[in-house]
Automatic annotation (TrEMBL):
<protein>
    <submittedName>
        <fullName>GCN5 family acetyltransferase</fullName>
    </submittedName>
</protein>
<dbReference type="Pfam" id="PF00583">
    <property type="entry name" value="Acetyltransf_1"/>
</dbReference>
<dbReference type="GO" id="GO:0016747">
    <property type="term" value="F:acyltransferase activity, transferring groups other than amino-acyl groups"/>
</dbReference>
<keyword id="KW-0012">Acyltransferase</keyword>
<keyword id="KW-0808">Transferase</keyword>
<dbReference type="InterPro" id="IPR000182">
    <property type="entry name" value="GNAT_dom"/>
</dbReference>
<dbReference type="InterPro" id="IPR016181">
    <property type="entry name" value="Acyl_CoA_acyltransferase"/>
</dbReference>
<dbReference type="InterPro" id="IPR050832">
    <property type="entry name" value="Bact_Acetyltransf"/>
</dbReference>
<feature type="domain" description="N-acetyltransferase">
    <location>
        <begin position="8"/>
        <end position="178"/>
    </location>
</feature>
């Protein structure tokens, strides 16, 4: 992960975290060139991944929020974690590209599962991912997620979620026992 002097902690985001979270999400999903991490979707989507309004709404969600991973109190990763009727929903997962490949994503995913299991009493976590993201799907499968068979359409025409560069985008759902 990081060196022995680094302190990692997780907590749900507060409203004043919104701008930092927005920068991380945009960098993780839309960065191009040298600054892009392996999680970028810039090959299939242009435009924004999210906006401050959506980030603020997710932070204020009474059924969850944006779980943050902090390295010495600086946010380095985030994910949407929402308590639903029979599962925890995991989404908008982003690790600052400058901090990727150090185990931080695995750590945050594990902590999200712990919250779902121990704090919310749930036995399953679900997520959706763009089917074309085979590298990301493989990463989730190595961590125990399995396809449910459910799919949903990409919101073509709604630029709040990006401008597709390719046709045929859709989401596939995965679940993992907690």
């Amino acid at each position: 992960m990081t060196d022995a002097t680094t302190t990692l902690s997780t907590r749900f985001a507060a409203p004043d975290d919104a701008e930092r979270i927005h920068r991380i999400v945009e960098a993780a999903y839309r960065a191009k060139g040298e600054g892009a991490g392996w999680t970028t979707e810039s090959g299939i989507l242009d435009g924004q991944r999210t906006d401050l309004r959506e980030i603020s709404e997710l932070i204020a969600n009474p059924d969850g929020g944006l779980l943050t991973l902090r390295e010495d109190d600086r946010i380095v990763a985030t994910c949407q974690l929402e308590r639903r009727s029979d599962h925890a929903y995991f989404g908008m997962f982003a690790v600052d590209p400058a901090a990727q490949a150090h185990g931080l994503g695995k750590y945050l995913l594990s902590e999200a599962g712990r919250v779902g299991r121990e704090e919310w009493g749930l036995s399953q976590m679900r997520l959706t991912v763009i089917a074309a993201r085979t590298d990301l799907i493989a990463w989730y499968e190595r961590r125990g997620f399995r396809p449910t068979g459910a799919t949903s359409p990409f919101p073509y025409g709604d630029e709040r979620f990006g401008i597709p560069r390719v046709e045929g985008l859709h989401f596939v759902e995965f679940s993992m026992d907690l």
